[in-house]
UniProtKB/TrEMBL annotation:
Protein name, per record: Moesin, isoform CRA_d
Entry's Gene Ontology molecular function annotations: actin binding
Organism of provenance: Rattus norvegicus
Domain of life of the organism encoding this protein: Eukaryota
This protein's encoding gene: Msn
InterPro entries, A to Z: ERM, FERM_domain, FERM_N, Ubiquitin-like_domsf
Domain FERM: 5-79
Amino acid sequence: MPKTISVRVTTMDAELEFAIQPNTTGKQLFDQVVKTIGLREVWFFGLQYQDTKAFSTWLKLNKKVITYYSEILPGNNVC
């Protein structure tokens, strides 16, 4: 069984935790978030993270989420 990775996503209303596979893409994570919160206006939103220099950066939906792990500022979430 593949190892899962814990990802925390913060919205204006909630803090969500997801267990994802190492090969999960940004689109797959975004789809999970959208489904969980019941978001309809998906074209208006996306996912961001704070990099190691504390800059907010958009997650590319076609890339694997794990590729961003070395860039995420410790203690921060995907938003």
